[in-house]
């Protein structure tokens, strides 16, 4: 009969039927929110935003030149500019520490945008060691700049962290595990340093006596 034929067929065996019963659909990956989501899609790109001709162009052209069809790199450029504007003291301020940083490429606002982009990338690709290294380097550079700003001007440091939504944590003090080998090495280094200081003291004493002898001889000649 037809039923017996179906059960005798390899594709309809009881093992395969049980396996189909345990099969589950693949779970969809959860979308990770991005810090670029708050950018309005109708905003024009940075290089086209201030052109007067944009007021008279067609809507299709505006869509092509807006962030709706922009790449992530172009959106990140706009986001960096927004963060810089938040911490800028005045519209003409391009050299303040919280905008430019002590290093040429170490801008706090731009570093913050890069760090958040790398964090989102590593949430999707946690095995990307190259970008993880770039993330750690960026965090360390930003922590150093914020630490300097915290010592120099605390009010500006507090405002910068508040505007950029940064949770600053001071670096932990360095601790080293004390081992027997490290203690022996430290004792040897201290002994070498002390011997070197003794040699330097003997040389300085000899030089001082020579100067005193020359000065005594010069006084005797004048008399």
From TrEMBL:
<comment type="similarity">
    <text>Belongs to the universal ribosomal protein uS15 family.</text>
</comment>
<dbReference type="GO" id="GO:0005763">
    <property type="term" value="C:mitochondrial small ribosomal subunit"/>
</dbReference>
<dbReference type="GO" id="GO:0003723">
    <property type="term" value="F:RNA binding"/>
</dbReference>
<dbReference type="GO" id="GO:0003735">
    <property type="term" value="F:structural constituent of ribosome"/>
</dbReference>
<dbReference type="InterPro" id="IPR005290">
    <property type="entry name" value="Ribosomal_uS15_bac-type"/>
</dbReference>
<protein>
    <recommendedName>
        <fullName>Small ribosomal subunit protein uS15m</fullName>
    </recommendedName>
</protein>
<keyword id="KW-0689">Ribosomal protein</keyword>
<keyword id="KW-0687">Ribonucleoprotein</keyword>
<keyword id="KW-0809">Transit peptide</keyword>
<dbReference type="Pfam" id="PF00312">
    <property type="entry name" value="Ribosomal_S15"/>
</dbReference>
<dbReference type="GO" id="GO:0032543">
    <property type="term" value="P:mitochondrial translation"/>
</dbReference>
<dbReference type="InterPro" id="IPR009068">
    <property type="entry name" value="uS15_NS1_RNA-bd_sf"/>
</dbReference>
<dbReference type="InterPro" id="IPR052137">
    <property type="entry name" value="uS15_ribosomal"/>
</dbReference>
<keyword id="KW-0496">Mitochondrion</keyword>
<dbReference type="InterPro" id="IPR000589">
    <property type="entry name" value="Ribosomal_uS15"/>
</dbReference>
């Amino acid at each position: 009969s037809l039923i017996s034929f179906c059960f005798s067929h390899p594709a309809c065996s009881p093992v395969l039927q049980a396996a189909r019963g345990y099969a589950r659909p693949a779970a969809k990956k959860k979308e990770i929110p991005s810090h670029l989501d708050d950018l309005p899609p109708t905003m024009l790109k940075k290089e086209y935003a201030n052109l007067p001709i944009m007021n008279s162009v067609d809507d299709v052209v505006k869509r092509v030149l807006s962030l709706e069809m922009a790449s992530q790199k172009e959106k990140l450029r706009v986001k960096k500019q927004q963060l810089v504007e938040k911490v800028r003291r005045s519209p003409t301020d391009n050299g303040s520490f919280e905008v430019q940083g002590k290093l040429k490429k170490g801008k706090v606002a731009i570093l913050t945008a890069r760090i958040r982009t790398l964090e989102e990338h590593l949430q999707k690709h946690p095995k990307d060691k190259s970008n993880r290294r770039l993330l750690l380097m960026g965090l360390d550079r930003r922590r150093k700049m914020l630490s300097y700003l915290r010592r120099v001007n605390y009010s500006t440091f507090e405002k910068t962290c508040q505007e950029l939504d940064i949770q600053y944590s001071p670096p932990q003090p360095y601790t080293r595990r004390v081992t027997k080998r490290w203690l022996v090495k430290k004792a040897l280094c201290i002994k070498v340093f002390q011997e070197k200081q003794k040699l330097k003291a003997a040389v300085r004493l000899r030089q001082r006596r020579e100067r005193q002898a020359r000065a005594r001889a010069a006084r005797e000649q004048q008399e």
